[in-house]
């Protein structure tokens, strides 16, 4: 799949926006004006920069880049918008994928696709192996509470277009068990995400998190691991609404545990995508926690929830700052990781 930068460089913004909005007219500061498709627009209030595709509506306040526009106008997710815009730009969205599937998946390719440092991945048990045919693939090692390798939980990824899969006869486990001591150091606050990529992204930013390898594998969520936590924030991806309630039911024996459902920003599927698109991840999580809805049995006053959320995210920022002084790969973002974020993430203009 071509990168967002490659698509923007190849896309004819004038042709694209006129096809979506009709004839544009000259505006101020070199921008062009058209009728906004997101509200009843009587006079042209939609302003777009045809050099970079950034747009803003002076009527309803909607704004973003060409990918935000496509997602909102076409009512689709980011990967779909990326694919369709690549086609409109004259690029083959599947050429690179087909080639990579033939060649396998290296650790470097996975790191580049997820915007994660290679040495950070290695420190967290992600490595490269080769099959009998010589093709490389990525291995995610799962560890238990004592740090021991759980061989039957190991998951493999053979291409970027496929999800990780368990070994034959493997058994699913929670990803991140071995980090429980440092997670509990965050006053018992925990983020629950789906899959290894989201979990690794959370750790890069110093966020306390564990991952479930698939929304349907809730049977692995035994109360024993969660008994010492206080609050769990569940990232509900689009299409997974109600996941937090299922988790709350699964952990209902822990009467003290409070579980909150978090809804991601429009057009964002998961934590990894937020990171790769250059969003301020800590601010995004902070906003989601502030808006989180409690789904566990004992619900307290909303203002108390809000205050607890703010306290947690504040600690998250302190943790990230603290992690700038560490580079052991065990306590969230290291100096190297923070520098990597600053150097590699795309800037949202």
UniProtKB/TrEMBL annotation:
> What GO molecular functions are on record for this protein?
DNA binding; DNA-directed RNA polymerase activity; zinc ion binding
Q: What is this protein called?
A: Zinc finger CHC2-type domain-containing protein
Q: Which PANTHER family match?
A: DNA PRIMASE
Q: What is the lineage of its organism?
A: Bacteria, Pseudomonadati, Thermodesulfobacteriota, Desulfobaccia, Desulfobaccales
Q: List the residue ranges of the region (Disordered).
A: 294-349
Alphabetic keyword roster: Metal-binding, Zinc, Zinc-finger
Keyword Zinc-finger attributed: yes
Q: Where is the composition biased (Basic and acidic residues)?
A: 315-329, 336-349
Which Gene Ontology cellular-component terms appear in the entry? cytoplasm
Residues in Zinc finger CHC2-type domain copies? 32-86
The answer on whether this UniProt entry bears the keyword Zinc reads yes
**InterPro entries xrefs:** DNA_primase_Znf_CHC2, DnaG_primase, TOPRIM_DnaG/twinkle, Znf_CHC2
Q: A GO biological process this protein is involved in?
A: DNA replication, synthesis of primer
List the CDD domains. TOPRIM_primases
């Amino acid at each position: 799949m071509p990168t967002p930068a490659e698509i923007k460089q190849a896309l004819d913004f004038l042709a694209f926006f006129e096809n979506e909005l009709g004839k544009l007219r000259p505006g101020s500061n070199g921008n062009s004006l058209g009728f906004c498709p997101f509200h009843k627009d009587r006079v042209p209030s939609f302003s777009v920069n045809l050099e970079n595709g950034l747009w803003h509506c002076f009527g309803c306040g909607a704004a973003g880049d060409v990918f935000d526009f496509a997602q909102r106008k076409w009512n689709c997710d980011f990967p779909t918008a990326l694919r369709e815009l690549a086609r409109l730009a004259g690029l083959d969205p599947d050429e690179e994928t087909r080639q990579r599937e033939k060649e396998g998946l290296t650790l470097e390719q996975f790191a580049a696709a997820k915007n994660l440092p290679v040495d950070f991945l290695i420190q967290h048990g992600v490595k490269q192996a080769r099959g009998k045919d010589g093709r490389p693939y990525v291995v995610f090692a799962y560890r238990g509470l004592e740090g021991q390798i759980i061989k039957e939980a190991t998951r493999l990824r053979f291409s970027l277009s496929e999800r990780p899969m368990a070994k034959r006869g493997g058994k699913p486990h929670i990803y991140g068990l071995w980090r429980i001591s440092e997670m509990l150091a965050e006053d018992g606050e925990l983020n629950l995400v789906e899959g290894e990529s989201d979990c690794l992204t959370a750790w890069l930013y110093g966020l306390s998190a564990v991952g479930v390898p698939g929304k349907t594998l809730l049977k692995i969520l035994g109360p024993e691991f969660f008994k010492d936590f206080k609050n769990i924030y569940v990232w509900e991806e689009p299409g997974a609404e109600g996941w937090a309630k299922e988790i709350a039911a699964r952990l209902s024996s822990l009467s003290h545990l409070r579980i909150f459902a978090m809804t991601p920003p429009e057009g964002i599927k998961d934590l990894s995508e937020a990171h790769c698109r250059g969003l301020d991840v800590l601010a995004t999580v902070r906003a989601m926690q502030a808006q989180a809805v409690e789904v566990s049995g004992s619900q307290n006053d909303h203002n108390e929830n809000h205050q607890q959320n703010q306290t947690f995210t504040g600690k998250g920022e302190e943790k990230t700052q603290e992690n700038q002084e560490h580079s052991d790969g065990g306590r969230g973002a290291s100096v190297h990781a923070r520098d990597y974020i600053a150097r590699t993430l795309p800037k949202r203009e």
